[in-house]
Amino acid sequence: MADAIRRQTVGARLLRGALYAVLILAALFYALPLLIMLITSIKPLSEITAGSLLSLPQNPTLAPWTKAWGEACTGMRCEGVGGYFWNSFAIVIPAVLISTAAGALNGYALTKWRFKGAEIVFALMLFGCFIPFQVVLLPMAQTLGWLGLSSSRAGLVLVHVVFGIAFTTLFFRNFYVGIPDELVSAAKLDGAGFFRIFWRILLPVSAPIIVVSIIWQFTQIWNDFLFGVAFSGHDTQPVTVALNNLVNTSTGVTEYNVNMAAAMIAALPTLVVYVLAGKYFVRGLTAGSVKG
Amino acid sequence: MAALEIDQVRKEFGRERVLKDVSLSIESGQFLILVGPSGCGKSTLMNAIAGLEPVTSGHIRIDGEDVTGRTPAERDIAMVFQSYALYPSMTVRQNISFGLEMRKVPKAERIEAVERVADLLQISHLLERKPAQLSGGQRQRVAMGRALAREPKVYLFDEPLSNLDAKLRVDMRTEIKKLHQRLGTTIVYVTHDQVEAMTLADKIAVMRDGHILQLGSPDEVYNDPVDMFVAGFMGSPSMNFIRATLEQSDGGVQLRIETPSEESLTLPWPAARTTEALTERIGKTVILGLRPEHFSEEDARLGAQAEGTPMTATVSVVEPTGADILLRLPLGEEEITARVGPKCAVAPGDRLALRVDMSRAVMFDANSEQRIA
User: Fold this and answer.
1) Helices within chain B (DSSP H only)
2) Domains of chain B
3) Smallest CA–CA distance from B103 into chain A, residue
């Protein structure tokens, strides 16, 4: 479309200019909170209380970052959010991998080995995407208690996997629906079984949807606060809960710079994931929608 | 012993009966073609033979062994799919050897088998490519190579040429025929293209609504169809069906075709094919079946020696195909197609003298559409 032939009149150029202006303004508007967080996190506290929100730092310092990471008080302890940051990874990585693997298998079974009631099973799983988290807090706490997983990382992983499967199954099911059934038939005739077909035929072409699933699940689980605050113990809190505690712990003056640095630390992994794999995310979501 | 035997196979999806008591058998080395319009059950039958769809009742035997309850892998068959179904993440070499690998064939033998089929199909230079880097014709070859590598008892081809362009389709058709003549394999081949069926098959099964209407050699199916459906389905342009009344004539029976504007036309039925049953139908309406090539233009040079029954008709449309000319002529209530030589100088509106070869004509019951003579 960019090459479409059209006459460049003065009016058209003005319109084009206005269009860009609006888009740039909108982009700045959306980037502003992040910029302010970043600026504030490297200002000394004195500059924050004296200067305006938008003023650039005169004496940039990394002290708020090191404090947020290792010294700031989160409730009773004053060890920063660093430990909880690794906690989050310890919860997120297994939960993402398990829920993605389970979703892939579910999607494969639901599309390529249709059984009686497959549609109903899928409809129920889809329904799982719309259950509000709050509804299951109490029954889930009970279940974790029975399983002996209360306040443990494994318990949190389980909760996230159970909730994530609805989404990952939806992703993989919709992706595999677009892969011709004849591929599976051919592999069956060649003598491959259920897992062999999945491993050798389906999985190697699933990269786009695996990326989508991983990004989606990583962001969801990393950003989760509710399950984290409800089901974690002191030592197993994810970074989101620690951030909340840090901000809510008042020791006289509110250290905005430390709070901002901690918030940046908590948000960093999801940002990095988006920057590195964002284009694959869009590509994966639109894969199959266009014949190619 | 039959290489493949289908014994009263039924297939029902819920209440819908897709295959209704289908039975057939082919000998080792035969080329069977299942042909019919969309939804006739030919692909379902193919899937049943492959074991991809369980049958509701009946038996399928390969080399005398009942395989009805076996998985596709246990049946020793290979299939070429309409979409080729090449594994997208594997190279051509891996695609061809995958089936052997699954059957735990030693690596040395696998390599040998790949080389053998690659030579046979002239795809040796493509072995390291991925399917996405191949053209349609090349993919088709690889799909056949995958089937040939394993040397199974029966090969199944599911509309393998329908995704190719017209010229390539004709080339590949010839290649499949050559391959069959060379390897002597047993092949079941599904198509809706009656030209493919005629050119390739040893045996054709014409299917409709889950039944096999006729099972026979291409010649039988073409020249001796059991009913109007088979007669109309095989052949292009298709057979002309002309409403006529059966009458007594001097030597036997004749067919009277009423034309609205002119005097009616009578065509004598060959005496050799006049049966008792036919004379009982005198006075009744029947359908006369004449293929376009049963007509020919009157050749003045032959004079009295000309064969066939003379008739004249007004030409409404002239369609030259290069090899010959197709004419549309109103006859009775219908418009018929006649195939005449390419040198026939004729224009729309002309009155044309034709000869009809009644010895090859067929006759059907007007109601049941079954063949009566």
Assistant:
1) 42-50, 92-102, 107-121, 136-149, 166-183, 194-200, 218-223, 228-233, 276-279
2) 4-233 (3.40.50.300), 240-365 (2.40.50.140)
3) A191
